Structure formats: structure tokens, C-alpha cells
From TrEMBL, chain A:
Subcellular location per the Swiss-Prot or TrEMBL entry: Cell membrane
InterPro entries membership: AAA+_ATPase, ABC_carbohydrate_import_ATPase, ABC_transporter-like_ATP-bd, ABC_transporter-like_CS, P-loop_NTPase
Descriptive protein name: Heme ABC transporter ATP-binding protein
Domain ABC transporter: from-to ranges: 15-250, 267-513
Annotated organism of origin: Paracoccus salipaludis
GO MF entries: ATP binding; ATP hydrolysis activity
Source lineage: Bacteria, Pseudomonadati, Pseudomonadota, Alphaproteobacteria, Rhodobacterales
CDD domains per the UniProt record, alphabetical: ABC_Carb_Monos_I, ABC_Carb_Monos_II
Amino acid composition bias (Basic and acidic residues), ranges on this chain: 526-536
From TrEMBL, chain B:
This protein's record includes keyword Oxidoreductase: no
Listed GO MF terms: transmembrane transporter activity
Membrane topology annotation: Multi-pass membrane protein
GO cellular component labels: plasma membrane
Organismal lineage: Bacteria, Pseudomonadati, Pseudomonadota, Alphaproteobacteria, Rhodobacterales
One Pfam assignment: BPD_transp_2
Record keywords: Cell membrane, Membrane, Transmembrane, Transmembrane helix
Species the sequence originates in: Paracoccus salipaludis
Superkingdom, natural source: Bacteria
Name of this chain's protein: Sugar ABC transporter permease
Sequence intervals crossing the membrane: 12-33, 53-75, 87-104, 110-128, 140-160, 204-225, 246-270, 302-323, 329-348
Subcellular location field: Cell membrane
Length: 536, 359
């Protein structure tokens, strides 16, 4: 295979997989997969959720034994049977969810499991020296004595990379590494990865963000339904071509939508403030209005109060929080303090929560039980009508193309995209007046993203008001009719989506107030403003 | 980790665990110079070989069904109720107060009221730890353990100073009126012309325990409240999202749990002793934890596990009676069963999972 490598093609591939197959019961997660990764390259692996990427990487890292096939590292059979032997073969893995001990220091985390000798002190001082060297060599600056829980997410990720390098990894696997990073942190990560490549390390990057693939990888492999459908040099392909390979059909990466026809205001917020239990002011006076038939997108780096706003509107502010300000739903006052998510639903507020696995679904419940979560008392009566719920769940799964179409399967056994479809189906089909949407496509594959976006637009066109919170600026810009930018608990400004740019929004997201006006004075006193104006 | 087929999860794992527990018990019996085969024979004939043995086995099983259900209901809400022992003792107090309050004309009248008394006292004893957990975050495990001791102390004081009939030397209540004597299973069998289980304490409470199983099943898997209890037990944040109030679920689930534990008293206090004795629950509250664990918090599993422990209790008593195996060894066997079926569950499950995964 003529894949570009920075070294001569004579060198054996860093990793070669031959005919790897793995089945879980009746599910063939990997089918006869062969892959060649040249040394000193960054190799992207893309595929929808459930395509078998994670299984393949788990096999490579020794978590699973393949049913058939061979793994060669540097041209030799690596004999990988568990993660210890994978580490010995020079493979390091950075998981999506970090495996760090939060109250240990960086150096303690790095040597965890690699201590030499019964006494800790010599290991620690040796590791500290080695960390300084690695940090200098790969721009991985982290204070070795900082406690991990005090570090930002981006720095914690660097600790994970350092852990792998400290164990002398030559091949680094990163699973969705940018999912938790801000754009700036992601840029820094890419610089680190390029530095690793320059020094001859091999990087395997698993992601669903095609832009990242195009930006940083040398070669890209596409997986679909457990099979490796293509491996191509990145510069010879395009995001559209990759998306088509992943899904197996043409995909619209853009959202097609008609001009919005906003009606009467459905949600009006004025001066909403929230102080959490620790006394930190999370919301510092939010004024917003969302009209029927429009999507208001809230852009912002995560952690600037979006979650708190959604929780308050959903009727479950965090325990001990103090909420003030006024809200009206379809003209009627909406009490913001106190917790009553049920009353909120009865008033016509649908809610697609930010964290579907922790909030939107009970992971151990079957799919059909989850289709009535929060609406389980709506049918009335002393006993729940399981047959009716099952039937309705099967119909919902059909309409929302949830796969596999098995209402009895536990929510945890669906892929991320299909879990989200269950939540979306439940909330959209309850015909809400106002739909709260948090990170609707986080960790969701391309095919499902397109589907979920289309359903949201349909709901908008049916006259519902939609409040969309997302850290993906692309998504905000594609879906929203108006965009409000949140920073540090404030709305920094509002723009019509057709009249703004990513650069302008990015500036607002970083806290730069428009035309130098302090944000509080830049806000109107009443939320009852004209939404068609660009800047308010 | 490969998932086990359902039948293996529900049948194979407990059976293998049980076999392991008995194998090690056999080794222990061997090591004190006794014959394990003989011992097993004595236990099986003693507990299951006659209607007399069955009568006792069912009597013990009745206690364990109630306490097992109690632990299971709390477990579905993610709460570990270790206080079934104390709640069952208070249930006994409720039964005694009802039975001694009026000259009851017939057991059929006394029983429903006694059940209300038993459940109410048990529920109230669970209410305090529940409200402390819900409002103050005091851990339910700690508080329910403490309430076991409080219950023991309270009953000690009441039986010695308040309920003891004048002139009696025994820390026990007065005898309940004859009319409150519950029908024994023997009498009920005789009524349909079958001679069964002569002079055993098994009584109508066994049937009530089975009915409670059906009701608990309905509650947990068929009612909206059960849905909320399970949703809260599996994911507190999802429950909050769904508009389920944690404090309400904690209090309701614990009161149902305490009520079920309290109901045990209609079997041991009203059905058997006919008066309230000191330490009436005799550890059944703790056995309930093992029963719920082994029965996977499902009523069918709980009935089976309760029968197993009923067998161990009755078989153990027979063993102590007919062999020179000391009574303490019975406790060892029971402990091994709890250890293997409850605590060491994964020891069987994981190799089995690998076995199924390898196919």
C-alpha cells in the first residue's frame, strides 16, 4: 500500500493488523480487519458509533482477545494478550475518559503501576526528572507536583500522554481526544501530536470530527459496520467523501432549512441569576426571549453557565442553589426556584439534556422503559400499561430509526447515537411548546447527527420554540436562527445567524464585549425585545 | 466482559455458588472428624424428609421472605437497609399492642389489624433513618444499624418495665388471647382432609408472605411508584431529570421496606409464640439481606432463597439434635452460603462469563 510515511518505506509498519475478527455473541464487532500504519505518521480512524473502532483499539491494547487474526508491531508478532503486554510492545492509550487519580499529583499518577521498588521516593524523583525531559521535548508542560484535580481538562490529557510516553510508548492511540477540549486546547494538542510525529512516534487518532482528520492526519481509515472499508492518504480525500464512506450513502454535512417564521414569545427570561451552594454566582442576570418557530442557539465554551441555565429551566436546579429573576412561559409566570421537573413537563417544556447517559436515560432500564422517563405517570391509573408502552416504544424506534430495533434491550447497550435518538424521540414526540436542547449531538455519529438536526428543524417548523445549547460552534451556526453567546454567566451579545461569523462569535465566547460596552449595560432591561435586530 | 445468558445468570451462578459453599462446608465437617455425607443426610431428612420438617422449614422461610422483601424494596431504591432486624422487632411490638388491646372475637378480625400494627411500627422505625438520609444525608447503613440496637434496648425496657405481667419473672408480654391464635398450616390441611405438618409452627402467615411477594412484584415492576423507585435506585440524576423527588422516594421506599420487615411479626410473634418475647426476630432481619442478595431482589428469587435458608435453619437444628456436630458449625455453613452466593458472586460469574464468551 502506498501510504505516505515520513520515514522510508523500507521500515516495517509500526502496526499491522491481519484479518482481525471479534464477535460479541451474535454481534460481529470486527470482521476480517487488516490495517497497516506506517511508522512516524498520524493515522486517523473514523466511523460511526458502533462501527467497531473502539473494539479494534481495545484489541490492540489487549483488553479483548480477537477471535481470529494477528497483530504485528514493528513487523513482529507482538503477542498482545493483555494491556501489560501491549505496553511492553510500546503501545500507549489515551482514553476519552481519563484514568487518573484526581487527588494524586501528576508525578504520582505517572508512576502509578510503574513504580520500581518498594520505596516510593526514588521512583518519584526519577520520574520527576524524566517528566521534565519529556515535557521539554514534546511541549507537554505540566507541573509534576500539581494535584491532578486542580488541572484543566487539557492539562489532564497531557498527563495521560505523559503516562504513555513515560512507559516508553512508540505508538500512541487517542480515543476522541478533543471531545472535552476547548478549541484552543485542541489546537495545542495537535501541535503536541505533530511534535510526536516529528520525533518518529506513531499516532492513531480515533475521532468522528472530520475536520480534525483533514487537519492533522497523514492517512485515514474508515470503518463501517465492523469492517474496514477504506484506507486512503488524507490529502487525496475530502470530508464529504469520508462521510459517504462512513455512512454508506451521501450525507448532507450542511443543514437544509427554510427561513424561520417566528411567532409569539414562548420563553421570556429577565434578570435570571443563580448562586450555587458554594456561593459562586453562575448566572449573572440572563435576559432572553425565544419565540415559537425559532431556534435560539446559545454558544459558549462549556462551563460558562449554560448547564445551570438548562437545569433551572428543566426544573431541577442543583441542590442548594439560589435562583432569582423572572420567567414567563407562553405568557404565564414560570417559577424558577424550587424543583419540579414534572410540572415543567406538564407545562409543555421538553428537555434533551446535555448528558444523556447520566440524565436523559436510566442506562440499566430497557429502551421501552426509557421512552416514558419523566412521563411515566402521564397515562394515569394505578398500574402502568406495559403493553401499550412497549408498542408505542417500538413505533417510536421505527420512526426515529433507532438501531437495533429492540425495545427490550437495555439503554446502555445502544450506541451513543441511538441512545440519543431514544431521548430525542421521547422529547420531540411529547409535542413540547418549548424544547430545551443541550449538546444534542455530542458523541453522536454523522448519520444520526443529520437525522437529529432534521427532526429539530421539523419541530421548529411546527411552531415550537427551541433553546439550543452546544459547545460545537458549527452546530450552533447551522441550526440556529438567532445566536446568543454566553460567557461567565452573562449573555455577551445576540446575533442573527446569517449576519455573523465564527470569528465574531469566537471573540464573544472569549469574553470580549461588543464595542467595548460592559455587558451588563449592553443588555436591555426587559426581555421583550425585537429578535430580528442583529445586536441587542 | 461477556454477558451471561439469562438462565445462566439466574440459575447456574447461584447453583454453582451453593455447590462451592457445600463443598467447603463438607471439608470443614471432615476436618472435625465427622462424616459430611451423613451430615447432609440428617439435614435433608430433618428439614425436607417429613411434613414435620417441612412445617419448620416453611415457618422459618416465612420470616425470611418478609425480611428478604424488605431488603429488596430498599435495594431497588439504591438503599441498603440493614435495619430489618430492628424493624421486625418493632413490628412485634405493634402486633403485641394490637393483640393485647382488645378481647378479639376471632383471629380473622385480629389479623388485619395486627398486620396494620406490625407494618406501621416497622415503617415508623424505618422512617427516622429515611428522613435523616433524605434531609440530612446521614448514611442509611449507619443509621439503620444504630436503630437495630435502639430497637433492642427499647424492647428490653418495655418488656421488663411495661409489658411484663405483674408477678412474672420472664421479660415477655402477657399471652395473647386464645382467639388471636392464627390457624396453623396443619389445621388448614386437616380442614381439607390431609394430615400434614403436625405440631409445627407454620401458619397462615406463609400464605400472606406469598401474597406480599405478588404485591411487591406489582409495586416494583408495574406501578409508576415502582418505576420511580427503580429509576432513582439506578440513577439519581436521571430521576431528578424525570421529576422524581429523591427525598420522597427515600422515605417511601424505606417505609415500605420497614413495613414488610415489621409484617414478619405476624408469623413469629402472633403465629408462633403467642406473646412478645425478648429478641423475637432472632436474626431473621440479617438473614433477609442474604436472601435478597441471593434472590437478586426479585420475589421469585427471594422465595427460593428463603426456602434455602429455612432448610439450613431447620436442617441445622436437626444436625445439632442428632449428631455431635456442634451448633456453631451450622452458623459456619450458613455463613459460607452467604459468602459464596452474595459476596463472592463474581468469583463464579467471571470465569463463567469467559466460558460463555469463548464459545
Amino acid at each position: 500500500m502506498a501510504l505516505p510515511g515520513t520515514r522510508g518505506d523500507a521500515a516495517p509498519p509500526a502496526i499491522e493488523l491481519r484479518g482481525i475478527s471479534k464477535a460479541f455473541g451474535p454481534v460481529q464487532a470486527n470482521r476480517d480487519i487488516s490495517l497497516v500504519v506506517p511508522p512516524g505518521t498520524i493515522h486517523g480512524i473514523v466511523g460511526e458509533n458502533g462501527a467497531g473502532k473502539s473494539t479494534l483499539m481495545s484489541i490492540l491494547y489487549g483488553f479483548y482477545r480477537p477471535d481470529a487474526g494477528q497483530i504485528l508491531v514493528g513487523g513482529r508478532d507482538a503477542g498482545i494478550t493483555d494491556s501489560q503486554s501491549a505496553i511492553r510492545a510500546g503501545i500507549g492509550m489515551v482514553f476519552q475518559h481519563f484514568k487518573l487519580v484526581p487527588n494524586f499529583t501528576v508525578v504520582e499518577n505517572v508512576i502509578l503501576g510503574a513504580e520500581d521498588g518498594a520505596l516510593l521516593a526514588p521512583s518519584v524523583s526519577r520520574a520527576r526528572k524524566e517528566l521534565r525531559r519529556l515535557a521539554a521535548e514534546y511541549q507537554l508542560e505540566v507541573n509534576p507536583d500539581a494535584v491532578v484535580e486542580t488541572l484543566s481538562v487539557g492539562h489532564q490529557q497531557r498527563v495521560e500522554i505523559l503516562k504513555a510516553l513515560y512507559r516508553q510508548a512508540d505508538i500512541l492511540i487517542l480515543d476522541e481526544p478533543t471531545g472535552v477540549l476547548t478549541p484552543a486546547e485542541a489546537d495545542h494538542l495537535f501541535r503536541i501530536l505533530k511534535g510526536l510525529r516529528e520525533r518518529g512516534k506513531t499516532v492513531i487518532l480515533i475521532t468522528h470530527k472530520l475536520r480534525e482528520i483533514m487537519e492533522i492526519t497523514d492517512n485515514v481509515s474508515v470503518m463501517r459496520r465492523g469492517e474496514m472499508v477504506a484506507t486512503v492518504p488524507t490529502r487525496e480525500t475530502s470530508p464529504e467523501a469520508l462521510a459517504e464512506l462512513m455512512v454508506g450513502r451521501k450525507v448532507l454535512l450542511r443543514v437544509d432549512k427554510a427561513q424561520a417564521a417566528p411567532g409569539a414569545p414562548v420563553l421570556e427570561l429577565a434578570g435570571v441569576r443563580m448562586v450555587d451552594r458554594a456561593g459562586v454566582e453562575r448566572l449573572r442576570g440572563i435576559d432572553l426571549a425565544v419565540r415559537g418557530g425559532e431556534i435560539l442557539g446559545i454558544a459558549g465554551v462549556s462551563g460558562n453557565g449554560q448547564t445551570q441555565l438548562l437545569d433551572i429551566l428543566g426544573g431541577y436546579p442543583e441542590a442548594g442553589a439560589q435562583v432569582s429573576g423572572t420567567a414567563r412561559l407562553a405568557g404565564r409566570p414560570l417559577p424558577l426556584d424550587g424543583t419540579d421537573a414534572r410540572a415543567r413537563r406538564q407545562a409543555g417544556v421538553g428537555n434533551i439534556p446535555e448528558d444523556r447517559q447520566a440524565e436523559g436515560l436510566v442506562m440499566d432500564f430497557s429502551a421501552w422503559e426509557n421512552t416514558v422517563l419523566g412521563r411515566h405517570r402521564d397515562a394515569g391509573g394505578a398500574l402502568m400499561d406495559h403493553d401499550a408502552i412497549r408498542r408505542e416504544a417500538a413505533a417510536k424506534m421505527e420512526r426515529f430509526d433507532v438501531r437495533p430495533r429492540d425495545p427490550e434491550l437495555a439503554a446502555k447497550n445502544f450506541s451513543g447515537g441511538n441512545q440519543q435518538k431514544i431521548v430525542v424521540a421521547r422529547e420531540i414526540e411529547s409535542r413540547p411548546v418549548l424544547l430545551l436542547v443541550g449538546q444534542p449531538t455530542r458523541g453522536v455519529d454523522i448519520g444520526a447527527i443529520e437525522f437529529i438536526h432534521r427532526r429539530l428543524i421539523e419541530l421548529r417548523d411546527a411552531g415550537a420554540a427551541i433553546l439550543l445549547v452546544s459547545v460545537e460552534l458549527d452546530e450552533i451556526m447551522a441550526l440556529s436562527d438567532r445566536i446568543a453567546v454566553m460567557f461567565d454567566g452573562r449573555i455577551m451579545g445576540e446575533r442573527l445567524s446569517g449576519e455573523t461569523s465564527a470569528a465574531e462569535l469566537g471573540l464573544l465566547m472569549a469574553g470580549a464585549s461588543p464595542s467595548g460596552i460592559p455587558p451588563e449595560q449592553g443588555q436591555p432591561d426587559t426581555p421583550d425585545h425585537e429578535p430580528s435586530k442583529g445586536v441587542i | 466482559m461477556t454477558r451471561l445468558p439469562r438462565w445462566a445468570d439466574l440459575v447456574l451462578v447461584p447453583l454453582i455458588s451453593l455447590a462451592l459453599a457445600f463443598a467447603i462446608s463438607a471439608l470443614v465437617i471432615l476436618s472435625i472428624g465427622q462424616n459430611p455425607v451423613e451430615a447432609l443426610k440428617v439435614m435433608v431428612t430433618g428439614a425436607l424428609g417429613s411434613s414435620y420438617g417441612w412445617g419448620y422449614t416453611l415457618y422459618y422461610a416465612t420470616n425470611f421472605i418478609f425480611t428478604g422483601l424488605a431488603v429488596a424494596v430498599a435495594a431497588h431504591a439504591g438503599l441498603f437497609n440493614i435495619g430489618a432486624e430492628g424493624q421486625a422487632s418493632l413490628g412485634g411490638l405493634g402486633v403485641a399492642l394490637v393483640a393485647l388491646a382488645l378481647p378479639w372475637p376471632h383471629w380473622g378480625v385480629a389479623l388485619p389489624v395486627a398486620m396494620v400494627g406490625a407494618a406501621l411500627f416497622g415503617a415508623m422505625w424505618a422512617f427516622i433513618p429515611a428522613i435523616l438520609q433524605a434531609k440530612r444525608g446521614s448514611h442509611i447503613v449507619i443509621t439503620t444499624i444504630m436503630f437495630n440496637f435502639l430497637a433492642a434496648a427499647l424492647l428490653n425496657w418495655l418488656l421488663v418495665n411495661v409489658l411484663r405481667p405483674p408477678g412474672s419473672m420472664d421479660p415477655a408480654s402477657a399471652r395473647f388471647p386464645e382467639s388471636t391464635q392464627l390457624p396453623r398450616l396443619t389445621d388448614m390441611a386437616a380442614a381439607v382432609g390431609i394430615e400434614w405438618g403436625k405440631s409445627t409452627p407454620a401458619n397462615i402467615s406463609f400464605l400472606i408472605a406469598l401474597a406480599a411477594c405478588v404485591l411487591v412484584w406489582l409495586l416494583i415492576w408495574r406501578t409508576p411508584l415502582g418505576y420511580e423507585i427503580r429509576a432513582f435506585g439506578r440513577s439519581e440524576r436521571a430521576a431528578l431529570y424525570a421529576g422524581i423527588r429523591p427525598a420522597r422516594i427515600i422515605v417511601i421506599a424505606m417505609m415500605i421496606s420497614g413495613g414488610l420487615a415489621g409484617l414478619m411479626a405476624i408469623n413469629n410473634v402472633m403465629g408462633e409464640a403467642g406473646r412478645l418475647l425478648l429478641n423475637s426476630a432472632e436474626g431473621a432481619g440479617f438473614i433477609g439481606i442474604a436472601v435478597a442478595l441471593m434472590g437478586r431482589n426479585h420475589p421469585v428469587g427471594i422465595v427460593l432463597a428463603a426456602l434455602l435458608f429455612g432448610f439450613l435453619y431447620q436442617g441445622g437444628a436437626e444436625l445439632a439434635l442428632w449428631t455431635s456436630i456442634p451448633r456453631e458449625l451450622i452458623v459456619v455453613i450458613q455463613a459460607l452460603v452467604i459468602l459464596f452466593t452474595g459476596a463472592l458472586d463474581n468469583m463464579v460469574r467471571m470465569p463463567l462469563g469467559r466460558l460463555f464468551g469463548a464459545r
